[in-house]
Structures are given as C-alpha cells and as structure tokens.
Amino acid sequence: MVVLNKIYTRTGDKGDTALVDGQRVPKFSPRVEAYGTADELNSAVGLARLHAEGDLAEALSRIQNDLFDLGADLGRPDMEKDAEAGYPVLRIVGSQVDRLEREMDAMTARLEPLRSFILPGGSPASAHLHLCRTVARRAERRAVELATVEDVNSDALKYLNRLSDWFFVAGRIANDEGRADILWVPGATRD
Prior knowledge:
This protein is mainly α. Helices cover about 50% and strands about 5% of the residues. The protein has one domain: Hypothetical Protein Ta1238, Chain: A (Up-down Bundle).
C-alpha cells in the first residue's frame, strides 16, 4: 500500500524525477512523457465519468485503475530486472487488452455501422469520451516513441492502441447508441 505523508519532496526542484526503480531522469525524458501522458489521460477519464452512468461508469472506473497500472509499468524501465525487484512488478497484461476487446465487441453489437466519420460531440459524455480518445492516441504515440529508444512492455502498447478505439465506441454508445452522433459532412462549410 502506498502511504504519502507529505506531497512535496523538493527532490525534483532541479528538473529531474525518480522512476519507479529509483533511477533519476530529466522530467522531459521520453519515459516521463509517456507515463505523464497516461496520467493526463486518467484525469480526462475522470471528467468523462462525471457524465457516465451504469455499465459505462463502471468500465471507466476499471480503465482508470488500468491507467495507474500503465503508469507504474511505463515508470519502471528495465523489464529484464523485474525478477530482481523483490516484489511483484506491476505490468499491463494481455487479459487487460482482451477485456477491452470484449467490451468493445459488446458495445459495437448495439450500434448501427458507421456510414460517415463522426464529429466529437453530441452528449456531454460522448464529448468527453472523444477527448479521452485523442489523449489516449497521444499517450500511445509517446509510448511508441519511447519504445524506439528503451524497452517498453508490448502489452502496454497494445493496451493503449485498443483503449483509444474503446473510447471511440463508448463515445457512440453515449450518443444514444450512435443515434445522436454528429456526422461529418465533407465540404459542408465551403462557400
């Protein structure tokens, strides 16, 4: 269990921060960018939850917990040393990716097929879920960029890829199961 008696530590006053394994890195490092964007996504999901009910709210709660798992995963760089940690190292696992896929399949079964791109918006829940989708895409880009220079758990990358799709489908569900989607009309505003 995490115990935080004091929030500020002053240890980052010179522009560096500690990773999960204690290693200090600059606050602008690709790893910090990756887990920091996952944290930003978690905050966006919290906003979406304010407008969600029932199964959708429960699913968003699970995703928020997953995003803390993801942050812990991305914040611990050396996967080869996981066994040496002396405690179970938290990593995203395939079953979390599988769960997103199952939930998407169930939501998609309730939707009519898309015949046009849709614009973010409609209901407040849908608008927030589309914001989550775009932040998830950015988190994925940051994690993929990190993976070009350091080891990254492949299940974490898969999770982020599925998660942005999940938010898209959930956004349609939140728009009266797609009936209140706002369709893109190509060239509609041209003079």
